[in-house]
Amino acid sequence: EQALGDSGKEKLHLNRKKPPAESASGRGRRSADTAMVNGDRAHEHTEETDSKQDGNGEADGGEESNEQEVIVIQDTGFTVKIQAPGTEPFDLQVSPQEMVQEIHQVLMDREDTCHRTCFSLQLDGNVLDNFAELKSIEGLQEGSVLKVVEEPYTVREARIHVRHIRDLLKSLDPSDAYNGVDCNSLSFLSIFTDGDLGETGKRKKKGSEMEQIDCTPPEHILPGSKERPLVPLQPQNKDWKPMQCLKVLTMSGWNPPPGNRKMHGDLMYLYIVTVEERHVSVTASTRGFYLNQSTTYTFNPKPANPSFLSHSLVELLSQISPAFKKNFTALQKKRVQRHPFERIATPFQVYSWTAPQVDHAMDCVRAEDAYTSRLGYEEHIPGQTRDWNEELQTTRELPRKNLPERLLRERAIFKVHSDFAAAATRGAMAVIDGNVMAINPGEETRMQMFIWNNIFFSLGFDVRDHYRELGGDAAAHAAPTNDLNGVRAYSGVDVEGLYTLGTVVVDYRGYRVTAQSIIPGILEREQEQSVIYGSIDFGKTVVSHGKYLELLEKTSRPLKIQRHSVLNEKNDTVELCSSVECKGIIGNDGRHYILDLLRTFPPDLNFLPVDGVELSPECQRLGFPRQHRHRLACLRQELIEAFVEHRFVLLLCSNNELEENSSKPTTNGPVDPTATQNGECKGPLEGKELEESIPGLAQAKELAETLVAEDGSSIDPKSREVVLNACKAVGSISDTAFDIRFNPDIFSPGVRFPEESADDIQKQKQLLKDAAAFLVSCQVPTLVKDCLDHSALPMDGASLTEALHQRGINVRYLGTVLEFMEKTPAKAQLEHIYRIGITELITRCAKHIFKTYLQGVELSALSAAVSHFLNCFLSSFPDAVAHLPPDELVSRRKNRKRRNRVPGGGDNTAWASLTPSELWKNIASEAQSYYHFTLQCESVDQVVEKFGLQKITLLREISVKTGIQILIKEYNFDSRHKPAFTEEDILNIFPVVKHVNPKATDAFHFFQSGQAKVQQGFLKEGCELINEALNLFNNVYGAMHVEICSCLRLLARLNYILGDHPEALSNQQKAVLMSERVLGIEHPNTIQEYMHLALYCFANNQLSTALKLLYRARYLMLLICGEDHPEMALLDSNIGLVLHGVMEYDLSLRFLENALTINTKYHGPRSLKVALSHHLVARVYESKAEFRSALQHEKEGYTIYKNQMGEAHEKTKESSEYLKYLTQQAVALQRTMNEIYKNGSNASIMPLKFTAPSMATILDQLNIINGIIFIPLRKWPLEYCAKVLSYP
Questions:
Q1: 1258, 1141 in Cβ contact below 8 A?
Q2: Where is the composition biased (Basic and acidic residues) (predicted)?
Q3: SS (H, E, C) 804-820
Q4: Is 302 helix (H, G, I), strand (E, B) or coil?
Q5: Taking 80 as the threshold, does the pLDDT of residue 505 lie above it?
């Protein structure tokens, strides 16, 4: 039996070519958390992660047959007893697949054993090997007793122990998350749920839920409020009030022990101050920790009397400090109660753009980490840097024949990648901060290169006039991100034997740094000798190599790259299968590396004016081609895919026409393909409709590709001619098959092509023009259409950028997109997108300016310069004056003498002379020159006025883009008397990091098949597949990842639809926590997760929690995009309904009427959404017994239903029934009133039926507005399921 978990070994520490030293690393608490992630209690993960059977043979029919091996896991978990000194024996559930080390991790995390790190586990007196799997241990079975035996310390173990204790003391302290270290990040969900979720919640409040809940939100959350406070973004967590256990714990100045003391077993000395102000000096010895008699100034290593010798530092401290004992116990209780997702490390660092003022406390481990230059050493393996290149390439070479192998390989790749990204980021910051010596220190600062921790760093400047013809520094700045996109594409194709470099691009303090792993041997030889494929001078001299051609040929189809020939300096023909810049180097390790992949994708002719090249009319109409900053503008991979897809549709259409005409002799080639030649869609809709009108496009594609065997032999001559003509018409490179590929060297300056390929080059040029035309005439309108029908719903700059990128539109087209929106007839319904687009455009222009502005600032003036820039950008204060640091004059004189300063050592104070009007002039001219968009605004207030922007949103966008972290407090942007920011408000500046995200392919296939099943209405099966996907994702990524987040969200939704509300709640809670931790606390995705969680809370009868969550979502949404957004209508309908349920009618109306207004604006007054909004408002009026208003709204709704659905539709009937009912109620009320007027107080009054809404009806309405409808599962119509589950 092959077991999934079997090859997995440990969940977290991938034991890869590292000494076993790594085992119980100081990150103990993190690894243990990973271990317990999927079950909420410590050891249930074993069943969950390892035991789900992949019993689903037909999970993914498309995969090759070896997918079919059904992996059965004989995983019968069993229980062992653990006996630790000083605690009662306890049971622990384990699985045969795990390693002994995982039990260590669990013990280091458990409340009662967490203070032990240096111990072995023994079974019947035999010590178990840490790296053995439990199933391989003789005699270990159900009920075995494992003894925890204290082992003697070594210096390494003592350090691990101290680090672990410090981690335990800091476990509730958020400062690591604010400082963006160790992959910590913030999460605030628990403050709003207050522990009400899941099991705990059910016990607390059963039945008494309806007791008074205070439902009134703070003023700034109510509809129509103009106030946008910043402080609520990070609500204060009661748990973070630090419980002080010690005042000081640090390494003593007496370290290291002198020789004679080493021979007594002294390992190191600690200096500790307890809360009671007792100063003690502690010896860590091989036997444990004890008090010695040293003081600050006299060294006396003799044991004190009593010495309190204890194996664990915690035991020692508990004896000498009552406060420590009490607080440490309380702290561990709290630590264990927190949800594991609040404390597990994320795979990549997330930075927070706001933070409170945190007191800086003494911390020995932090101080030691900073100065012992733990460069990229794996924790506590001093003297051994990691060979990043070797690790990155070895993991790629792991076998991948079956699922367990692939999981192991992907997990290894992912782990090394996230470690590499972290090390590269740290190195890049060290380089810019001037803490790394250059390898060419004699040259001027811009030209310097650095090596640190086996990573090579270079700055994004055009140092050797390398890019002179391509746009100088602007090209040198764009090249690294293009190169990274190339690396991403090639590693995505994942061809065996072809290697790319680990690449990370870091923007920090105005500089762009590229970090790359180092090809073995590259530093010893000149570049000219090593390059055996490609060109080092942009195509003047070119070489090729058979092996490289063979390897690259395998990538050419997926990447749509055409194999082509170019001429070298001797006019010889050289064959290539990539752009000329792409260089092949064989390393000393014999591997074939490719680097400089900046032109993997073809050039974008709209931004590349070439003499004598005419673009298609629709491009010219929009003012293309335009001059760009550099000549490296490429099309995106997504655009190439979409273009090829589009051409395929054309092929099918022209094929159909040809089939009909093929009876007549086709002398004139295909029937006028020029109609569709230029790649334009006639209207923004046509492309979409084509797809819809051709059922089963994908099947057709396969059919066409099989129909045409490679050599075209399988088809009769007549249809061959048809295919040939059709392929010609759409620009395919092969006559018999549909195969469009691009030559990336077309229009590269300096590249020459041989005569015989002139024809082909012409075709390629046409293809590039068509692609450029396709982008502006098809993709931009498609984007706008998707925004109009709300299938794309960006909320902030990042989600807008993502929407552009998904459709293959580069951000440099932002101005074009905005202009297109201005000209759209339905402009008003695009207002939200337009506003986000303008915000994005302005903040990107400001970012460009900020980049060069920062390069001239010396370190001591950094916070002053950043606050000055923000004042000029956002403050209404007209004459923002910069404060130069007071010591400016003193340092000026000294500095003149040093020619070689760190890159950030600009001598100038030019930044101080920037004024708001000058900055806004620059922003406007940047918008004009980069985005070709006219702003016509001279100040921030004009922009805010003209486009309806929010200053707080602008602040968030610029901070996130540039890595600024500001103090969380209320800023007065609009004061005309004093600037909004002072230098004290700038807390930090973080790097902005781009890297490759390795994927979990198998897990993703499972996820997709699960989604497909669900859309066909097979919910149970879908649910199983998605659970399986979740296990595989966990296996590859560990516990925290964006993709796991979407998996959990879908799972929760399925649980909910299948009626398992508690399970839905638990999965959605994980999704929210994960989204906060991995994407950020105010990311649009997090806002959506909050909304879903609120719905499941309501269904679980936790009304006050549901409201708190909805209010939180509304606050976040106001902060990132303001009130005027279609998504706000959904949110407000949710809030209004819940308030209606708790009988807060007036408040409920405020939200529901706001939702009605927004729906009417964005969906048009005749939309069904608006009808539903009217109905919801009518119901609240009915509950208030205001029947006239109720009738008015219901009539509106009725009219919409009647016009849209017809009289006979059930919606229309329901509405008409409800109208009758309201009329009766109104009449009854009127009668009663008349009765009262007539007879005064002795009137006989009929009691009126005032209906307080039932929870069930409210829940039904909530389900409807959130797109969930329950139908007996047999009869699910397909399109319905698709609608429910394809929601964002």
A1: yes
A2: 40-55
A3: HHHCCCCHHHHHHHHHH
A4: coil
A5: yes
Q: What is the pLDDT of residue 2?
A: 30
What tokens appear for 65 in the block?
């047959």
User: Quick one: pLDDT at residue 449?
Assistant: 92
Mutual angle of helices 155-169 and 322-337, in 10-degree steps: 70
CB of 1121 within 8 A of CB of 832?
yes
Tokens coding 931: 């985005």
Q: State the amino acid at position 147 in one-letter form.
A: K
CB atoms within 10 A of CB 1251: 11
Tell me phi and psi for residue 267, to 5 degrees.
Answer: -105, -45
Cα separation, 790 vs 829, in Å, equals 10
Q: Which residues of 1262-1285 are buried (b: 16+ CB within 10 A; e: fewer)?
A: bbebbebeeeeeeebeeeebbebb
| C-alpha–C-alpha distance, residues 1006 and 554, integer Å | 26
Range in 452-456, 717-721, 887-891, 911-915 the model is least confident about: 887-891
Q: What is the CA radius of gyration of the chain?
A: 33
Residue 34 token pair: 């990973």
> What is this structure's pTM?
0.85
DSSP 8-class letter at 402: S
**How long a stretch of residues is the chain?**
1288
Among 473, 479, 443, smallest CA distance to 461 is for: 473
Cβ–Cβ under 8 Å, residues 368 and 160: no
Element (H, E) at 1142: none
Q: How many CB atoms lie within 10 A of CB 825?
A: 6
Between CA 606 and CA 634 the distance in angstroms is 10
**CA atoms 603, 607, 608, 611: torsion sign:** positive
Q: How far is CA 170 from CA 115, 291, 312, 338, 716, in A?
A: 14, 24, 18, 14, 76
Nearest to 202 by CA among 1101, 1090, 1259: 1101
Q: Which of 1174, 1182, 1178 is nearest to 1248 (CA)?
A: 1182
Reported as type and span, the H/E element at residue 250 is strand 246-251
CA 18 to chain centre: 30
Residue 1169 pLDDT level (bands cut at 50, 70, 90): very high
Please give the backbone phi and psi of residue 221, each rounded to the nearest 5 degrees, phi first.
-95, -15
Three-state secondary structure readout of 1224-1276: HHHHHHHHHHHHHHHHHHHCCCCCCCCCCCCHHHHHHHHHHHCCCCCCCHHHC
- Own/partner pairs for 492-495, CB < 8 Å, 24+ apart? 492/999, 493/554, 493/555, 493/558, 493/559, 494/396, 495/551, 495/554, 495/555
Mean pLDDT of 629-635: 94
Closest of 288, 437, 271, 1230 to residue 903, by C-alpha? 437
Phi-psi region of 1214 (alpha: psi -120 to 50; beta: other; left: phi over 0): alpha
> Using alpha carbons only, what angle is made at residue 488 by residues 486 and 491, rounded to the nearest 5 degrees?
105
Per-residue pLDDT of 451-499, as tens digits, reads 999 999 999 998 778 888 888 999 999 999 999 999 999 999 999 999 9
On the 0-12 / 13-18 / 19+ scale of CB atoms within 10 A, 1202 is: middle
**Count of CB atoms situated within 10 Å of the CB of 447:** 15
pLDDT band per the 50, 70, 90 thresholds, residue 68: very low
Interatomic CA distance for residues 740 and 764, integer angstroms: 10
| The token pair that represents 238 in the structure block | 């009661």
Torsion angle of C-alpha atoms 409, 480, 555, 812, degrees rounded to 10: 120
Mean pLDDT calculated for residue range 79-86: 91
Number of DSSP helices (H) and strands (E) in the chain, helices first? 45, 23
pLDDT band (50, 70, 90) for residue 167: confident
- Spatial neighbors of 65 by CB under 8 A, at least 6 apart, are none
CA pair distance 1015, 1004, nearest whole angstrom? 16
